[in-house]
Amino acid sequence: MKKDFIEFMIEAGVLLFGDFTTKKGRKTPYFVNTGNYKTGKHISTLGDYYADKIIESGVKFDALYGPAYKGITLAAAAASSLYRNHGIDVPYFFNRKEAKEHGEGGVFIGYTPKDGDRVCIIEDVVSAGTAVRESLQLLGETAAVNAIFVSVDRMERGAGAQTAHDELQSNFGIEVYSLITVRDIIDTLKSGEPTDISHAEKIEEYLKIYGV
Fold first, then answer.
1. 21, 33, 37, 85: which could form a disulfide with 42 (CB 3.0–4.6 Å)?
2. What predicted TM-score, i.e. pTM, was given to this entire model?
């Protein structure tokens, strides 16, 4: 499944190779841009991957949360697939970038989380964990985030010496489930054409600097 998912991301123009900068300001030779999913087939397939991973994890939850902007589509797709393929009708919600002061107001759109709700965050990647910490702060004390599901775990250092994945688990008690890791990407590229092998080598050099 991992190789299939990697090929799916490359075909959709989501897994890119070149010169990029992460949200943390790190210069990286690869980038995951889930904003490039743009067809019904793309989003339906992606939702199935996420839903299958959620079911496989066995995590108990009451709602799915997708951080704006890219997480909105991811959470909606996962919720749709959970109902379509697994008969699980779960609410989902996402945040506004700016709080709305007219009409219904509020920060969230869709489901309104209640005290004690168990929430799964649906994200694109986990790098240094910066975006996830922003989501935890926004959700505050209302909802208990008990799991995070991402397309790719970049396996990079967080705020300290641990990976962001391990920091989130040790500091907040939150497990991170990824469809693939950067190591899966490297292994797949190494089995491909010379250009793919070159990309794999650049990613490995990057991990020597920012990995653990």
1. 37
2. 0.90
